[in-house]
Amino acid sequence: MRIEAYTQVQQIYKTQKTDTTRRKTSVGATDQLQISSLGKDYQVAKQAVAASRDIREEITAPLKNSIQAGTYGVDAGEFADKLLQRMKEVG
Length: 91
Known about the structure:
This protein is mainly alpha-helical.
């Protein structure tokens, strides 16, 4: 292989290169975003959840007080019945 032949081919391609970049001249084109009604409902629901409290104090405060006072008790039989009922619903 001759090196000078390679450089001659390379020079030919360099001279025939054209500017492939194009300039954007469209001034009137704009991007648009359309959100479906389902998407809008989702956004409203998401905002409502974000604004709500994580812990409902009106439910947890009495339980917390009875646990701290030592008066909170769990009936083992009732707990087992509810656990079995839940297992039947799931499986």
